[in-house]
Design brief:
The chain is 6% helix and 69% strand. By secondary structure, it is mainly beta. The longest helix is centred in the last third of the chain and has 4 residues. It has a four-stranded antiparallel sheet, with no helix packed on it. A hairpin with a 2-residue loop joins strand 2 and strand 3. The chain is elongated.
């Protein structure tokens, strides 16, 4: 909704499981996109916070699939 989403997920490995809650916000302007993603939870009894901030810009048309696979 309104360039924002929230989600829950679980990371697992043998003998361990961690529940994380996430929130992501995206915005676009012309040929650019920006994102901010934040995950919060705990891992092995310690607080875990992961943040990711990204920016992208359109640099041209996509290649046709036939050219891309060569």
């Amino acid at each position: 909704s309104q360039n924002s989403t929230s989600f829950d997920f679980t990371c697992t490995e043998p003998g361990e499981s961690s529940a994380l809650k996430g929130h992501a916000e995206y915005s676009t302007s012309g040929n650019t996109i920006s994102s901010h993603i934040r995950l919060e939870g705990s891992y092995k009894g310690k607080e875990l916070i992961v943040e990711s901030i990204g920016k992208g810009e359109r640099i041209g048309d996509c290649l046709p699939e036939s050219e891309f696979s060569e």
